[in-house]
Amino acid sequence: MNMKKKSIVTIAALALCAMAVSCKKADKANTPMAAEQSLYERGLGLASEIYECAASKELLDIMMSDYGWETIQSEGEAVKKSEPTACYELHPDYESFILSVTEEEDWYKSLPSGVRKRIEQGLFSSVFNYNMNVRGVTHLALSSALTATALFDSTELQADTTYLYVFKTSYPVLVTFIKGEGNAILANASLVFAENLINASSAETVTETLFTNPLYHVDCSVTQVR
Q1: Largest Cα–Cα distance of the chain, in whole Å?
Q2: Which is it for the CA torsion 226, 131, 128, 187, positive or negative?
Q3: Fewest C-beta atoms under 10 Å: which of 13, 147, 169, 215?
Q4: Least-confidence region, from 12-16, 37-41, 109-113, 170-174
Q5: Which burial class, exposed, middle or buried, applies to 22 when counting CB atoms under 10 A from its CB (0-12, 13-18, 19+)?
């Protein structure tokens, strides 16, 4: 696909997305107010969006050229939506991890809470990207391309948290819920290319896969919520 054609297709795709958002807003305005979805349901909806994107050759060609689609095809059933079997809530103790590798404990603790929060969120992304890079650069790029985001209001979330959605024959999806002002919630979802997390049935498997490798170990509280 030449650059001119690719640019036209990209603009068209963005326009379609904008139209879809407008339609959803219009539908919402003309229908009775629905009951508030739970965080679990919100995250499961984002997981479905990711699997839909993984099934779109056109989308992956726009975002990654031909090699993205070829890699997805080689994954077979693991990138196709299947029955959800579990959901784990993750609370990694990044503060303890940071303090264990720095001699400036007072310096870190003196930082404003908002700054510490951003550092810990960045560390979470780094840990996630490291694990994806183990599979190779293509899978790392795919994990960045196959994402979904939602902004919504919810009274359920009291503090930032992360859910790992596990499926019977599919790769899991990681969804981070970030609390904003008032009841605003930002949810970011990513596909996790980890074979031993397919149909994972224990918190120990989740911890060992996501937070332990030859370079580091991060203590993490893992609770099964579904």
Answers
A1: 58
A2: negative
A3: 215
A4: 12-16
A5: exposed
